[in-house]
Amino acid sequence: MENFIVSARKYRPSTFDTVVGQSSITTTLKNAIASNHIAQAYLFCGPRGVGKTTIARIFAKTINCQNLNENLEPCNDCESCKAFNHHRSTNIHELDAASNNSVDNIRSLIDQVRIPPQVGKYSVYIIDEVHMLSASAFNAFLKTLEEPPAHAIFILATTEKHKILPTILSRCQIYDFNRIKVDQMVAFLEEISHKEGVDYEKDALTVIAQKADGAMRDALSIYDQVVSFSGERVTYQKVIENLNVLDYDYYFRLTDAFLQGDHSNALLIFNEILDKGFDGHQFINSLSQHFRDLLVTKDQQTVDLLEVGAGIREKYKEQSSGASVKFLVQALNIANQYDVSYRSSMNQRLHVELAMIDLCNIDTEKKKPVNPPQKVPQQ
Predict the structure, then answer these.
(1) Region for 231 from its dihedrals, namely left if φ exceeds 0, alpha if ψ lies in -120 to 50, beta otherwise
(2) What's the CATH code of the domain at 274?
(3) How does pLDDT run across 109-142, given as a tens digit for each residue?
(4) Domains identified in the chain, total number
């Protein structure tokens, strides 16, 4: 049986052009290589799974390639490239600062920095989770970081930039990585599905991308999990079942009940949601997101802020046309207030049910008949 390779490893980008969602950073680094303006130290900041270590490895491979092509991408034929591709390169050194954060670890690294590379021009030192270094280790590292040998380049990666000492920041070129957008993730997952021969529904891939919250590595891990569950066809229903995600249909049904002032139906739908094992706090938070999405759908200028699949988008357009902006703003305020006070409530189910009742009452107040003023009998 052939060994399975997870998608996050199998489809990890190997060139700048294949990196998803970080075009400004890859362009800057390629221009620096083209003009030979390579810095001595870089700091890559951003959330997990957005490509910090991947781009660091690609950068190390590219600056050591002996035959770059016209697009400044590695040739994959020279000795340096082959060593990188087979994970035996002596030009790249990775240190996990989370588990190697002492002064002794840094001193060992400093001793290693003095040794020039055997093949290629540069030795690249990638220090992951650099914010985990102790204060003493940072201080021991300062001098080497400021004046490294000509062959040494440091790439520091962190998810918590605010924990890095200012003295370290001042010695680095700082690159802030973006969370990867939902549509970019969906496009990449579609590409992988075609290569793997997996049939899919686009709405299903959109749910996976939303669940990943901007991290491509998380999206690929979730994708592998869903494919294992669904087989050769990834559908929307299979995805929400496997990931325990609440179907959009519940939010559309609830909003219809709120617009009609139907307290009974709203409470029954909420009871159905609880019976499926969903948390009340998570539900009220997601309901706020639903009202927000309906609000941005009202205006053509903001409709692009709606990160859902094409099928769900049409449902949002249809429902938003029947809800006034005033209703949606009031609904957002009510849902937000109940979200904030949820944890302090003694009876949390009743707390959310009161939110349902308040939401049903938004439009019913306006529909009450106005009684004409009573005439005051004259004395």
Answers:
(1) left
(2) 1.20.272.10
(3) 888 888 887 777 888 888 888 888 888 888 888 8
(4) 3
Percent of the chain with pLDDT over 90: 3
Indicate the residue among 150, 176, 202 that finishes a domain: 176
Instruction: Kindly write down the DSSP assignment for every residue of 171-239, as one continuous string.
Output: TSEEEEPPPPPHHHHHHHHHHHHHHHT-EE-HHHHHHHHHHHTT-HHHHHHHHHHHHHHHTTEE-HHHH
Residues belonging to the chain: 379
In-domain check, residue 125: yes
- Select from 123, 120, 29 the least CA-distant residue to 66: 120
pTM of the model: 0.79
Residue 68 resides in a domain: yes
The CATH number of the domain holding residue 172 is 3.40.50.300
Q: 118 with 112: CB under 8 angstroms?
A: no
Q: What is the pLDDT of residues 220-247, one digit of tens each?
A: 999 888 888 887 888 888 888 888 888 8
Question: Which of 151, 176, 201 is where one domain is finished?
Answer: 176
